Protein backbone atom coordinates (compact mmCIF):
# COMPACT_ATOMS: atom_id res chain seq x y z
CA UNK A 1 0.00 0.00 0.00
CA UNK A 2 1.56 3.35 -1.00
CA UNK A 3 1.93 6.15 1.57
CA UNK A 4 -0.90 7.97 -0.20
CA UNK A 5 -3.51 5.45 -1.37
CA UNK A 6 -5.01 6.00 -4.82
CA UNK A 7 -8.79 6.32 -5.01
CA UNK A 8 -10.96 6.13 -8.12
CA UNK A 9 -13.87 8.39 -7.18
CA UNK A 10 -16.97 7.51 -9.23
CA UNK A 11 -19.36 10.35 -10.00
CA UNK A 12 -21.58 11.57 -12.81
CA UNK A 13 -20.87 15.29 -12.69
CA UNK A 14 -23.36 16.01 -15.49
CA UNK A 15 -26.33 14.19 -13.94
CA UNK A 16 -29.30 16.52 -13.48
CA UNK A 17 -30.90 15.67 -10.14
CA UNK A 18 -33.98 17.49 -8.96
CA UNK A 19 -33.11 19.89 -6.16
CA UNK A 20 -29.50 18.69 -5.85
CA UNK A 21 -26.18 19.46 -7.50
CA UNK A 22 -24.18 16.25 -7.61
CA UNK A 23 -21.23 18.00 -9.23
CA UNK A 24 -20.82 20.60 -6.48
CA UNK A 25 -20.90 18.03 -3.70
CA UNK A 26 -18.41 15.69 -5.36
CA UNK A 27 -16.00 18.46 -6.35
CA UNK A 28 -16.00 19.75 -2.77
CA UNK A 29 -15.78 16.36 -1.05
CA UNK A 30 -13.09 14.94 -3.34
CA UNK A 31 -11.06 18.12 -2.80
CA UNK A 32 -11.16 17.57 0.95
CA UNK A 33 -10.17 13.91 0.62
CA UNK A 34 -7.07 14.90 -1.38
CA UNK A 35 -5.43 15.81 1.92
CA UNK A 36 -4.96 12.07 2.51
CA UNK A 37 -5.44 10.35 -0.86
CA UNK A 38 -4.48 10.65 -4.51
CA UNK A 39 -7.84 10.90 -6.27
CA UNK A 40 -9.09 10.67 -9.84
CA UNK A 41 -12.74 11.38 -10.68
CA UNK A 42 -14.35 8.88 -13.02
CA UNK A 43 -17.69 8.54 -14.83
CA UNK A 44 -19.62 5.34 -13.96
CA UNK A 45 -19.27 4.06 -17.54
CA UNK A 46 -15.47 4.13 -17.28
CA UNK A 47 -15.07 2.48 -13.87
CA UNK A 48 -14.42 -1.12 -14.94
CA UNK A 49 -11.79 -0.06 -17.45
CA UNK A 50 -9.84 2.13 -15.02
CA UNK A 51 -10.17 0.62 -11.56
CA UNK A 52 -7.24 -1.82 -11.67
CA UNK A 53 -4.79 1.09 -11.32
CA UNK A 54 -6.23 2.20 -7.98
CA UNK A 55 -6.21 0.94 -4.41
CA UNK A 56 -9.97 1.37 -4.04
CA UNK A 57 -13.07 2.52 -5.90
CA UNK A 58 -15.23 5.05 -4.05
CA UNK A 59 -18.78 5.14 -5.45
CA UNK A 60 -20.35 8.50 -4.76
CA UNK A 61 -22.98 10.47 -6.72
CA UNK A 62 -23.04 8.16 -9.73
CA UNK A 63 -26.74 8.58 -10.50
CA UNK A 64 -29.35 5.80 -10.73
CA UNK A 65 -27.69 2.57 -11.84
CA UNK A 66 -30.62 1.70 -14.10
CA UNK A 67 -29.31 4.35 -16.52
CA UNK A 68 -26.19 2.23 -17.07
CA UNK A 69 -27.13 -1.17 -15.65
CA UNK A 70 -24.93 -3.23 -17.98
CA UNK A 71 -21.84 -1.19 -17.11
CA UNK A 72 -22.63 -1.41 -13.41
CA UNK A 73 -23.08 -5.19 -13.59
CA UNK A 74 -19.76 -5.48 -15.43
CA UNK A 75 -18.07 -3.36 -12.76
CA UNK A 76 -19.46 -5.52 -9.96
CA UNK A 77 -18.40 -8.72 -11.70
CA UNK A 78 -14.87 -7.42 -12.32
CA UNK A 79 -14.56 -6.14 -8.75
CA UNK A 80 -15.59 -9.55 -7.40
CA UNK A 81 -13.20 -11.40 -9.72
CA UNK A 82 -10.22 -9.18 -8.87
CA UNK A 83 -10.88 -8.65 -5.16
CA UNK A 84 -11.16 -4.91 -5.70
CA UNK A 85 -11.84 -2.75 -2.67
CA UNK A 86 -15.12 -0.92 -3.30
CA UNK A 87 -16.50 1.72 -0.92
CA UNK A 88 -19.26 1.17 -0.04
CA UNK A 89 -18.52 -2.57 -0.03
CA UNK A 90 -20.86 -4.36 -2.43
CA UNK A 91 -22.37 -6.46 0.36
CA UNK A 92 -25.10 -3.97 1.28
CA UNK A 93 -28.55 -5.44 1.82
CA UNK A 94 -30.58 -2.28 1.14
CA UNK A 95 -30.87 -0.12 -2.01
CA UNK A 96 -27.60 -1.54 -3.29
CA UNK A 97 -29.41 -4.85 -3.77
CA UNK A 98 -32.72 -3.42 -5.01
CA UNK A 99 -35.99 -2.82 -3.19
CA UNK A 100 -36.50 -6.34 -1.82
CA UNK A 101 -35.42 -5.08 1.59
CA UNK A 102 -38.66 -3.09 1.91
CA UNK A 103 -40.59 -6.34 1.62
CA UNK A 104 -38.24 -8.15 4.00
CA UNK A 105 -38.45 -5.40 6.62
CA UNK A 106 -42.25 -5.27 6.29
CA UNK A 107 -42.46 -9.02 6.87
CA UNK A 108 -40.10 -8.77 9.84
CA UNK A 109 -42.22 -6.08 11.53
CA UNK A 110 -39.77 -3.20 11.25
CA UNK A 111 -41.12 0.38 11.33
CA UNK A 112 -41.18 0.78 7.55
CA UNK A 113 -43.88 1.98 5.16
CA UNK A 114 -45.80 -1.28 4.58
CA UNK A 115 -44.89 -2.73 1.19
CA UNK A 116 -46.37 -5.47 -1.03
CA UNK A 117 -45.37 -6.96 -4.36
CA UNK A 118 -48.22 -9.46 -4.85
CA UNK A 119 -51.96 -8.82 -5.17
CA UNK A 120 -52.68 -11.44 -2.50
CA UNK A 121 -50.69 -9.34 0.02
CA UNK A 122 -52.67 -6.13 -0.47
CA UNK A 123 -54.81 -7.00 2.51
CA UNK A 124 -51.75 -6.52 4.71
CA UNK A 125 -51.53 -2.85 3.73
CA UNK A 126 -53.42 -0.16 5.63
CA UNK A 127 -56.44 1.37 3.92
CA UNK A 128 -55.55 4.46 1.93
CA UNK A 129 -57.23 6.70 -0.62
CA UNK A 130 -54.18 6.40 -2.87
CA UNK A 131 -51.26 4.00 -3.20
CA UNK A 132 -47.70 4.57 -4.39
CA UNK A 133 -46.66 2.22 -7.17
CA UNK A 134 -42.95 2.07 -7.98
CA UNK A 135 -40.68 -0.27 -9.97
CA UNK A 136 -38.55 -2.65 -7.93
CA UNK A 137 -35.52 -1.45 -9.86
CA UNK A 138 -36.47 2.21 -9.55
CA UNK A 139 -34.45 5.07 -8.12
CA UNK A 140 -34.75 8.83 -7.76
CA UNK A 141 -38.58 8.58 -8.05
CA UNK A 142 -38.25 7.20 -11.62
CA UNK A 143 -41.45 5.39 -12.56
CA UNK A 144 -43.31 6.42 -9.38
CA UNK A 145 -47.08 6.70 -9.74
CA UNK A 146 -50.03 7.14 -7.37
CA UNK A 147 -53.26 5.25 -7.98
CA UNK A 148 -56.60 4.87 -6.14
CA UNK A 149 -57.38 1.52 -4.53
CA UNK A 150 -59.83 0.51 -7.27
CA UNK A 151 -57.02 0.60 -9.82
CA UNK A 152 -54.78 -1.80 -7.92
CA UNK A 153 -56.50 -4.77 -9.54
CA UNK A 154 -55.39 -3.53 -12.98
CA UNK A 155 -51.68 -3.37 -12.16
CA UNK A 156 -49.16 -5.57 -13.95
CA UNK A 157 -47.58 -7.33 -11.01
CA UNK A 158 -44.11 -8.86 -10.92
CA UNK A 159 -41.71 -5.93 -11.08
CA UNK A 160 -43.52 -3.37 -8.92
CA UNK A 161 -43.97 -2.45 -5.28
CA UNK A 162 -47.13 -1.01 -3.76
CA UNK A 163 -47.31 1.11 -0.62
CA UNK A 164 -50.09 3.16 0.99
CA UNK A 165 -49.61 6.87 0.52
CA UNK A 166 -48.64 8.18 3.95
CA UNK A 167 -49.94 11.49 5.25
CA UNK A 168 -46.75 12.65 6.91
CA UNK A 169 -45.67 15.82 8.67
CA UNK A 170 -42.13 15.92 7.29
CA UNK A 171 -39.26 13.76 6.09
CA UNK A 172 -35.98 13.36 7.98
CA UNK A 173 -32.69 11.76 7.00
CA UNK A 174 -29.97 10.38 9.26
CA UNK A 175 -26.43 10.10 7.90
CA UNK A 176 -23.87 7.53 9.06
CA UNK A 177 -20.24 6.70 8.37
CA UNK A 178 -19.64 3.05 9.21
CA UNK A 179 -21.92 2.63 12.25
CA UNK A 180 -21.40 6.14 13.64
CA UNK A 181 -24.10 8.81 13.38
CA UNK A 182 -22.88 12.04 11.77
CA UNK A 183 -25.78 14.47 11.31
CA UNK A 184 -29.47 14.70 10.45
CA UNK A 185 -31.47 16.89 8.08
CA UNK A 186 -35.18 17.32 7.53
CA UNK A 187 -37.55 18.85 4.99
CA UNK A 188 -40.15 20.85 6.96
CA UNK A 189 -42.37 21.24 3.88
CA UNK A 190 -43.48 17.87 2.40
CA UNK A 191 -44.02 19.58 -0.96
CA UNK A 192 -40.34 20.59 -1.11
CA UNK A 193 -38.49 17.44 -0.10
CA UNK A 194 -35.05 18.75 -1.14
CA UNK A 195 -35.28 22.02 0.79
CA UNK A 196 -33.45 20.62 3.79
CA UNK A 197 -32.57 22.11 7.15
CA UNK A 198 -30.43 20.80 10.03
CA UNK A 199 -32.39 18.58 12.38
CA UNK A 200 -31.61 17.75 16.00
CA UNK A 201 -32.64 14.10 16.49
CA UNK A 202 -34.00 12.78 19.73
CA UNK A 203 -32.69 9.63 21.37
CA UNK A 204 -35.78 7.84 20.04
CA UNK A 205 -35.01 9.07 16.51
CA UNK A 206 -31.46 7.73 16.71
CA UNK A 207 -32.67 4.41 18.13
CA UNK A 208 -35.03 4.16 15.15
CA UNK A 209 -32.25 4.82 12.63
CA UNK A 210 -29.81 2.53 14.44
CA UNK A 211 -32.09 -0.47 13.90
CA UNK A 212 -31.63 -0.20 10.16
CA UNK A 213 -27.89 0.46 10.32
CA UNK A 214 -27.48 -2.65 12.48
CA UNK A 215 -29.72 -4.68 10.15
CA UNK A 216 -27.59 -3.83 7.13
CA UNK A 217 -24.33 -5.06 8.75
CA UNK A 218 -21.99 -2.90 6.61
CA UNK A 219 -18.78 -2.50 8.59
CA UNK A 220 -17.51 0.34 6.38
CA UNK A 221 -19.22 2.94 4.23
CA UNK A 222 -21.76 5.75 4.11
CA UNK A 223 -25.46 5.15 4.71
CA UNK A 224 -28.51 7.41 4.78
CA UNK A 225 -31.67 6.42 6.63
CA UNK A 226 -34.66 8.27 5.12
CA UNK A 227 -37.82 8.39 7.19
CA UNK A 228 -41.13 10.20 7.38
CA UNK A 229 -42.85 11.48 10.52
CA UNK A 230 -46.49 10.42 10.52
CA UNK A 231 -49.31 12.61 11.79
CA UNK A 232 -49.31 10.37 14.87
CA UNK A 233 -45.66 11.19 15.58
CA UNK A 234 -44.06 7.87 14.58
CA UNK A 235 -41.15 7.48 12.20
CA UNK A 236 -41.42 5.08 9.26
CA UNK A 237 -38.57 4.09 6.99
CA UNK A 238 -38.87 5.40 3.44
CA UNK A 239 -35.49 4.24 2.13
CA UNK A 240 -32.18 2.85 3.36
CA UNK A 241 -29.61 4.16 0.89
CA UNK A 242 -26.33 2.25 0.99
CA UNK A 243 -25.04 2.54 -2.58
CA UNK A 244 -24.49 6.21 -3.43
CA UNK A 245 -26.43 8.38 -0.96
CA UNK A 246 -26.44 12.08 -1.73
CA UNK A 247 -25.17 13.79 1.41
CA UNK A 248 -26.58 17.34 1.15
CA UNK A 249 -23.31 18.60 2.64
CA UNK A 250 -24.11 22.14 1.50
CA UNK A 251 -26.98 22.11 4.03
CA UNK A 252 -24.79 20.99 6.93
CA UNK A 253 -23.14 23.43 9.40
CA UNK A 254 -19.39 23.81 8.90
CA UNK A 255 -18.28 21.91 12.05
CA UNK A 256 -20.55 18.96 11.20
CA UNK A 257 -19.28 18.96 7.62
CA UNK A 258 -15.68 18.92 8.87
CA UNK A 259 -16.50 16.07 11.24
CA UNK A 260 -18.08 14.09 8.40
CA UNK A 261 -14.98 14.50 6.19
CA UNK A 262 -12.77 13.39 9.08
CA UNK A 263 -14.97 10.35 9.72
CA UNK A 264 -15.03 9.37 6.05
CA UNK A 265 -11.24 9.79 5.81
CA UNK A 266 -10.70 7.55 8.85
CA UNK A 267 -13.20 5.02 7.50
CA UNK A 268 -11.41 4.84 4.15
CA UNK A 269 -8.04 4.35 5.83
CA UNK A 270 -9.49 1.61 8.01
CA UNK A 271 -11.10 -0.10 5.05
CA UNK A 272 -7.90 -0.02 3.00
CA UNK A 273 -5.87 -1.40 5.89
CA UNK A 274 -8.37 -4.23 6.41
CA UNK A 275 -7.43 -5.82 3.08
CA UNK A 276 -9.31 -6.59 -0.14
CA UNK A 277 -13.05 -6.96 0.11
CA UNK A 278 -15.78 -6.12 -2.38
Structure description:
The chain has 278 residues and is of the alpha/beta class. 26% of the residues lie in helices and 24% in strands. The chain has helices spanning 22-33, 47-50, 69-82, 100-107, 203-216, 254-273, and strands spanning 6-10, 38-42, 56-59, 86-87, 130-135, 145-148, 160-164, 168-177, 180-187, 197-198, 222-230, 235-241. Strand 3, helix 3 and strand 4 (86-87) form a beta-alpha-beta unit. The protein starts with 5 loop residues before the first strand and ends in a 5-residue tail after the last helix.
Provide the descriptors you would attach to this structure in a database record.
278 residues; 6 helices; single chain; alpha/beta; globular
Short summary:
With 278 residues, the protein is an alpha/beta fold. The chain is 26% helix and 24% strand. The chain has 6 helices and 12 strands.
Structural class: alpha/beta
Helical run tally = 6
Helix coverage percent: 25-40%
Which of globular, elongated, flat, extended, rod-shaped describes the shape?
A: globular
**Overall average residue pLDDT:** 91
Poorly predicted spans: none
Terminal CA distance reads 17 Å
The topology string of helices and strands comes to EHEHEHEHEEEEEEHEEH
Q: Tell me the strand percentage band.
A: 15-25%
Question: Taking strands numbered 1, 2, ... along the chain, how are they ordered across the largest sheet?
Answer: 10-9-8-11-12
Task: Give the radius of gyration.
Answer: 19 Å
What profile does the largest beta sheet have? 5 strands, antiparallel
Number of strands: 12
